[in-house]
Amino acid sequence: MKLYLIPSACSLAAHIAVREANLDIELVKVDLRTRKLPDGRDYKNIAPKGQVAAMALESGDLLTENIAILVYLSSLAPECGLMPSVGTPEYFRTLEWLAFVSTEMHKQIFWTNFNPAAPQEYKKHILSLLPKRFDTLEERLKGRDYISSNCFSVADAYLTWALHMIELINVPINGWPTLEAYRTQMFRRPSVKMAMAFESQ
Ligand SMILES: N[C@@H](CCC(=O)N[C@@H](CS)C(=O)NCC(=O)O)C(=O)O
Asked: Which of 74, 87, 177, 181 has the smallest count of CB within 10 Å of its CB?
């Protein structure tokens, strides 16, 4: 199996999950500028959507969309608790936070911020939504180590990537001390450190 990633892109969430569960999956870097693979092939020929993350499965099928990939990866290592058991309250809570990161942060805020076609005024508006997102996260994380259950889940992996983006775009979060402490804790995890180190090479 292969996981296609672009360094520091949202595929980092799946990469963290791979390392967290110690899965035997080949990591393939896609060049952000040329959209080529290390062997010179065009990524579009492998993933017609042209986006990461994408996974080449044993069956030969390609799986795309972060949430689907994260849930798939968790199914390969059920003992890890990356996704709580189906039907439990923690399972639905994990889906809830995956959706929050995906729709309220990733696609709404980061995607717009990095989209050269988005007007500056609109980008300003989009970034002004961040404090509200931080308030929501701060409130949820009070008294908790993880965002959705009592152990590290794929929602933490996705949120850790989002907090990495926040750092990259230089938005301070020191006004949200619980969120900042959570980010520090997540960045200290061996899986996160290894994934970030690999992607920055
Ligand atoms: N709907 C997809 C979106 C994935 C996505 O936005 N990927 C970005 C990186 S964070 C990407 O590949 N951007 C390159 C492009 O759109 O050309 C998902 O949720 O997985």
From this structure: 87
Asked whether 52 lines ligand 1 (CB < 6 A), one says: yes
Residue range 146-165, pLDDT digits in tens = 999 999 999 999 999 999 99
- What CATH number is associated with residue 31? 3.40.30.10
pLDDT at 69: 98
- Indicate the pLDDT class of residue 40, thresholds 50, 70 and 90: very high
DSSP symbols for 68-81: HHHHHHHHH-GGG-
End-to-end CA distance of the chain: 22
- Residue of 5, 28, 52 best suited for mutating to test ligand 1, as the one with most atoms within 8 Å of CB: 52
> Which atom of ligand 1 lies closest to the CA of 51?
12
Q: What is the pLDDT of residue 123?
A: 97
47 CB near ligand 1 (under 6 Å): no
Same structural domain, 134 and 168: yes
Q: How many Å lie between the centroid of ligand 1 and the Cα of residue 106?
A: 9
